[in-house]
Write a structure and sequence with these properties.
alpha/beta, 8-stranded parallel beta sheet, about 350 residues
Length: about 350
């Protein structure tokens, strides 16, 4: 059994952090499911920007959509939903076999709505309805403005992948928003089983402090943040509040490790996958990281439920002058801005290809 199979058997879900039409049409995604134990995938504006910009695979469909009067965001979501519904259908047997625990795909609302709660909720509901797939998460950022939309979406029965979380505090705020939505469903006599994951970004921490800390602390901050967040996850699942919700039929929001591709060329290419091995979590990996772990990965000790040495490591970073709380806010803000930039690039790409189609037509 290869390392991805062992990681899956340990109890961690392996998701692909990528989607392209070529991955679907070539049978590569199906092969990853069969050979590398992939049980879900995620997407974001950057992924779709690269997929559409760097391929001619979408051009014929864009031409058809333009002739039908589609443009801009509407045209993009047509393309994205075509890809993601195909992927959702590939993962449907896993979703059914696990009774909805696994087998999910994710689509993000427009990042231009990140600071608009009402519009985010409306977009989440509309996209989920358009997809018509039970195993489609709608990604909503865990920003202060996104938290009410997360709660409202869960109350409305829309499965949510909470994205752009960087710290224990941001995770806890998102988890509580999810739990409030669940509790509102219980109070209203509705089925509280609404799927959700909370996505904590890891590698960007180490990129942010790479030039600011001693060599002994290189590539250790992201894992320490993960350890501290994992303890908070266990604390929440052990709380009386969660037990009451679970007793009423609720299902736990799973913790998901995102941004787990190694950015430092001097570090192991499977650094974060090995360090963040933990049951009842998800690791969503870039394609290169997935293949690297399948090729030469190894599954060692699982994460400590009490956070292990995370507190001591974080104390060392504090001594080195790193304000983790301030940096968490900065990273979330930068992440939101980065997705907006990718979204604008994506809309520009869609318009360029649409204009070319109009000229030909």
């Amino acid at each position: 059994m290869n390392a991805t199979g062992k990681l899956h058997d340990l109890g961690q879900s392996i998701w692909l952090d990528n989607i392209t039409r070529d991955l679907l049409s070539s049978g590569t995604l199906k092969r990853y499911i069969d050979e590398l134990s992939v049980t879900g995938l995620t997407s974001n504006p950057t992924i779709f920007d690269h997929a559409i910009k760097n391929s001619t695979t979408y051009d014929d469909t864009i031409r058809q959509k333009v002739r039908a009067g589609r443009s801009g965001e509407d045209l993009f979501f047509d393309l994205a939903l075509e890809d993601l519904t195909r992927a959702a259908d590939l993962f449907k047997p896993i979703h059914q076999r696990t009774d909805g625990v696994d087998g999910w795909v994710s689509l993000e609302v427009s990042p231009l709505l990140a600071h608009d709660t009402a519009s985010t909720l409306a977009a989440a509901k509309a996209l989920h309805d358009r997809a018509g797939r039970a195993n489609l998460f709608i990604k909503i950022p865990g920003t202060p403005e996104g938290l009410p939309a997360i709660e409202a979406a869960i109350f409305a029965g829309v499965p949510v992948n909470v994205t752009l979380l960087f710290s224990r505090e941001q995770y806890v705020a998102a988890a509580e928003a999810y739990l409030r939505g669940v509790e509102r469903r219980i109070a209203a006599g509705l089925n509280p089983d609404v799927g959700s994951v909370a996505s904590v970004f890891v590698s960007r921490w180490d990129v942010a402090v790479a030039s600011k800390v001693p060599a002994a602390l290189a590539n250790r901050l992201g894992v320490a943040i993960g350890g501290r967040t994992y303890k908070a996850y266990h604390d929440l699942l052990g709380s009386a509040r969660w037990h009451r919700a679970a007793n009423a039929g609720a299902r736990a929001q799973r913790l998901l490790w995102a941004s787990t591709g190694t950015k430092d060329p001097k570090a192991s290419d499977i650094l974060y996958v090995k360090a963040l091995a933990a049951p009842f979590t998800v690791n969503t990996m870039p394609e290169g990281t997935l293949k690297a772990f399948g090729d030469h990965g190894e599954v060692g000790d699982i994460m400590a439920a009490d956070g292990g040495d995370a507190a001591a490591v974080l104390a060392s970073f504090a001594k080195a002058g790193i304000d983790v709380d301030a940096l968490a806010t900065q990273l979330q803000d930068e992440g939101a801005k980065s997705f907006v930039e990718s979204w604008n690039d994506l809309m520009s790409c869609i318009e360029t290809k649409s204009a070319a189609t109009r000229k030909v037509g």
